[in-house]
Amino acid sequence: MAESAQIIRAEEIDPKFKYVVSKMHGAEKVTLCFQCGTCTAECPVSRFSDLYKPKRIARMVQLGLKDKILRDKHLWLCTTCYTCVDHCPQDVEIANVVRVLRNISIQYTESMPLVYRELAENLMKTGFVYVIPESRIKRREELGLPPLPKTNPGEILKIFELTGLSSLIKGSQTFERVE
Amino acid sequence: MVSGKPRYLIFLGCVIPYRLSSYEISARRVLSALGVELVEMPEYNCCGFPIDPVNHDTAVLLAARNLCRAEMEQLNILTLCNGCFSSLHKVNKMLREDKEERERINEYLKILDMEFRGTIEVKHLVHVLSEDVGFKKIKDSIKRPLSMLRVAQHPGCHIIRPKKVVGKDDPENPRLLKDLIGLTGAKCISYRGENECCGNPIIGVNEDIPFKMAKEKLDHIIAAGAEALITVCPFCHIMFDLNQPRIERIFNVSIGLPTLHYTQLLGLAMGFQPQELALDELRVKPTALLRKVFKENSSQKSS
Predict the structure, then answer these.
(1) Under a CB-based contact definition with an 8 Å cutoff, are residues B82 and B158 in contact?
(2) What is the tens place of the pLDDT at every residue in B118-143?
(3) Which of B14, B196, B278 is facing A129, going by the closest CB pair?
(4) Do A129 and B50 lie within an 8 Å CB cutoff?
(5) Under 8 Å CB-to-CB from B302, ≥6 apart: which residues?
(6) B265: Cβ–Cβ under 8 A, 6 or more apart, which residues?
(7) B113 touching chain A per CB within 8 A
(8) Which domain holds residue B101?
(9) Secondary structure element (H or E) that encloses residue A67, with its range
């Protein structure tokens, strides 16, 4: 059952990548991971996936395998249950490291899962991540619920422009599924 | 807020108005009966949680904008959704404690003529019930004790983890929801993996893994002998109720486990009628459960 040996070529390595990652909010302690594997043993997704292994993600960052990890679609399999964050003996907030890598990956690969682009587009247009149909809004009255407060899409658009997310969405390719 | 009626801005988020009015209806019903005054959150937007994987700064700003709106109203926020609680509470805590980050975000917020000051609290429904209403008042409101029921809790991740951010319950042995269930008279049984994730957040990119996760949980719950599952998060609820028929089809099994919002269970115990709590909106019909509740209560009355 031994995994086939993977040869890492020196030119694949970006030794500074771990410093880039550890400057980001939530990923500060990624260099402290000593590969005990607690995160992976307790990860509910890892239980059902041979390819999503949080400790491997941390090691790839440490080794500087920038291109490989940023192109790895399995980054999108973390459910953010935060079990790994609670249990890491080195206080590496591994779920937040994954979030940081997802953020960087979108810029680096100019692609993101389709579902996230849809959520982002809905949000930018309406203030909510789902487009709430008119029938639903009308039905609230029949159900005795108060009217849904109006959103302020103008302000949301300002936020999206400020962070560059509006142009990021436009320029991104999408992919549907991660196996 | 020590004395007097607790007042909260109700933060509905996106998914509840989109497809889960049963949670909103039952929550408003029981909160109002327990003397919690709810004020509609004006001009709110998505809490930011779903967009965090795409762009962290956008998520923080969306949360901060909501927090600033609440600060203008000088009212604390009550969320019904674990995700909304997680995002708003985390950003509130971070901006309060991290001066550098607060200054950076406030610089951004100038474009909206807003400034984060850190003057309000964010609480999830379970916190308002336990901290503001209090166990005694809830217990006193019970008119129809549900002692004939054996149920299981699913607190969901984001009201228990990460511990250093949430800090209000023990993630290894979550008690808060269990104790709230206990107040209704129902027996909240233990099962393996009570504190585990429902799998919902990744369903948009992969369906196999979340359904396996949910199926595993349902197996443990059924094995422990629960007649219903109790949730306090719309995403978890969708996973176990709305998606339960799909899980049954995929794994070729029959499960039929009614999954109630905690506010529906509490409402039943407080004496509300099933339709007042939108129990008819559940995908997995709680017919047998309701029959048991009403049969036993009527026989208690007649004896």
Answers:
(1) yes
(2) 999 999 999 999 999 999 999 999 99
(3) B14
(4) yes
(5) none
(6) B146, B151, B181, B184, B186, B228, B230
(7) no
(8) 7-125
(9) helix A66-70
Domain stop point among B65, B95, B125: B125
Number of domains in chain B: 2
Task: Quick: pLDDT tens for B153-174.
Answer: 999 999 999 999 999 999 999 9
Q: Do B17 and B84 belong to one domain?
A: yes
What is the least distance, in Å, from the CA of B6 to any CA of chain A?
Answer: 19
Cβ contacts (< 8 Å) between B196 and chain A: which residues? 44, 81, 83
Q: Does B29 score more than 60 pLDDT?
A: yes
Give me the residue spans of the domains in chain A: 10-109, 110-179
Q: What is the pLDDT of residues A57-88, one digit of tens each?
A: 999 999 999 999 999 999 999 999 999 999 99
Question: Crossing angle for the helix pair A153-163 and A114-126, nearest 10 degrees?
Answer: 130
Q: Which of B31, B58, B172, B197 should be substituted to probe chain A, the one whose Cβ sees the most A Cβ atoms within 10 Å?
A: B58
Judge whether B134 lies within some domain: no
Residues of A in contact with B50 (CB under 8 A): 116, 119, 123, 129
Q: Is residue B21 domain-shared with residue B75, that is, in the same domain?
A: yes
B297 band by pLDDT with thresholds 50, 70 and 90: low
State ipTM. 0.96
B201 min Cα distance to partner chain A (Å):
5
What is the model's pLDDT at position B299?
65
Residue with tokens 């679609």: A73
Residues B112 and B256 in one domain: no
Please state, rounded to an integer, the average pLDDT across all residues of chain B.
Answer: 96
Q: Is residue B120 part of a domain?
A: yes
- Contact (CB, 8 A) for B237 and B259: yes
Architecture label for domain A10-109 = Orthogonal Bundle (1.10)
Q: How confident is the model at residue A6 (pLDDT cuts 50, 70, 90)?
A: confident
Domain-terminating residue out of B90, B125, B160? B125
B90 and A CB contact within 8 Å: no
Interface of B with A in 44-63 (CB under 8 A): 44-46, 50-58, 61-62
Phi-psi category of residue A85: left, alpha or beta, with phi > 0 → left and psi -120 to 50 → alpha? alpha
